[in-house]
Amino acid sequence: MLTDAALTLPVPFLDLRSSHDELKTDLLDEFGKLIDSNAFTNGPAVGAFESDFAAYCRRTHCIGVASGLDALRLALIAAGVEPGDEVLVPANTFIATFEAVSQAGGTPVPVDVAATDLNMDVEAARAATTAHTRFVMPVHLYGQMADMRGLGELGLPIIEDACQAHGAVRDGATAGELGLAAAFSFYPGKNLGAFGDAGALVADDDDLVARVQALREHGQRAKYDHELIGFTARLDTIQAIVLSRKLPLLDAWNNQRRSAAALYSQALDGVGDIELPPVAPNSDPVWHLYVIRTADPQALALHLRDREIGTGFHYPEPAHLSKAYRSLGYAEGSFPVAEASAGRVLSLPMFPGITESQIEAVVDGVRAFF
C-alpha cells in the first residue's frame, strides 16, 4: 500500500527519505558499535549479510564486493574467460555490462532485445552464437527478468546481470537463481541500496566462489597467500550493516513499487503516443525503473521539469554506439529494437514511499503535454 510520506510537489525522480527514516536510529546505533569495534573491513556483518542474501536469492553462496561491476568482472574471470572469448550481452543496457566483459579480457557481442520485455532476445542470441561464444550475460533490465529458461536452452554458461532486479520473478524463478552466477548492485538508488557503492555475486559452485573470494582481496586465499592476481573489491562492513537492515524490508518496498507501476500503467494507457513498459507473460518485475517510450522524451522531460517533476533517461545511447565501444564495429541500425527504444525512453519517478498524490501529479503533467 502506498504511503503519504512526502509532499505532492515537487516530485523528485528518486526520494529515499521515507525508506531511511524508519532505519535511521538503529543504523546510527550500529555505526557507533562499528566504530568501537574497528572491524571496518571483513567484519562479522559482512558474513551475516552474505548468508542472508544467498538465502534470499535461493543460492548456496553470496560474496560481497564493492560494486555490481566488480561482481560481473570477477565472475567472468573466476569462470575462466580468456582473450578472444565472446560474451553475449544485450544491446539495451547500461555500459557497465560491456565494461565487465572487456575488463575481464573477453569480447562483448551485443544481441538485440525482444519487444516483449526489452531484454535479450533468445533467438537473436542463438543467431549470434559462434564457436568463440563462451558465456551469455543477460541483463534483467529495469527490474524485469530476461527469459532465463529460454536462454538456458542455448547450452552456454549464464552469468546474470541482476543489478536492477532484486526480488524479481519470472517463470517461477527469482533473479539470480538460475545462472552459473548472478551479479547484484547495491548502488544507493537500487531496490536494495547501500549508502555508497556495493555489490554481490551469488552462486552455488564452490570452486567459482572460492576464486571470487580470493580475487576480491588481492588474489589471496589466506593472509599473504596470493594464488591469483586480484583486486581490492571488498564489501565494506558499514555497507553490510546497512544492507542487513534493509533486506527484511525489500519485499515490502518492491510491492510499493509494483503498486506505483500499476497506477502509472492504468492512468497513462492511451495517453498521447506513450508506449507503456512491456511485461512478459509469467513475469513479475520489481520496477527498479518505470520507463515509458515517446517520440520526444527530451521535450516531455523539460515540460515535467517545469512542473517540478524529476525524470531520467535509461539509456539514451546504446553502448555499441558509444565512443568507448566504437571499435567493436557496429553501425547504427545493427540492433533496431534496442536502438529504437534508446531514442524514446523516459523514466518517471519511482521509489518506495511514492504517494498516490505524487503519481497523480506526474500523470497530470504527462497528460498536459499531449
Secondary-structure element order, N to C: HHHEHEHEHEHEEEEEHEEHHEEHHEH
Q: Could you report the average pLDDT, rounded to the nearest whole number?
A: 96
CATH topology of the largest domain: Aspartate Aminotransferase, domain 2
DSSP E strands, number: 14
Level-2 CATH architecture of the largest domain: 3-Layer(aba) Sandwich
Shape: globular
> What is the topology, as strand order, of the major beta sheet?
1-9-8-5
Q: How many helix segments?
A: 13
Structural class: alpha/beta
What Rg is obtained from the alpha carbons, in whole angstroms? Answer: 21 Å
Portion of residues within helices: 25-40%
Largest sheet report: 4 strands, mixed
Separation of the first and last Cα atoms: 30 Å
Total number of distinct structural domains:
2
% residues in beta strands: 5-15%
Q: By CATH's scheme, which homologous superfamily of the largest domain applies?
A: Type I PLP-dependent aspartate aminotransferase-like (Major domain)
CATH class of the largest domain: Alpha Beta
**Uncertain ranges:** 1-7
Fold topology:
Elements: H1 17-21, H2 24-37, H3 44-56, E1 61-65, H4 68-79, E2 86-90, H5 96-104, E3 107-111, H6 122-128, E4 133-136, H7 148-152, E5 159-161, E6 169-170, E7 173-174, E8 181-185, E9 199-203, H8 206-215, E10 220-222, E11 225-226, H9 237-246, H10 250-268, E12 283-284, E13 290-293, H11 297-306, H12 336-342, E14 345-348, H13 356-369
Parallel strand pairs: 2-3, 2-4, 5-8
Antiparallel strand pairs: 1-9, 6-7, 6-12, 8-9, 10-11, 13-14
Helix pairs in contact: 2-9, 3-9, 4-5, 4-8, 10-13
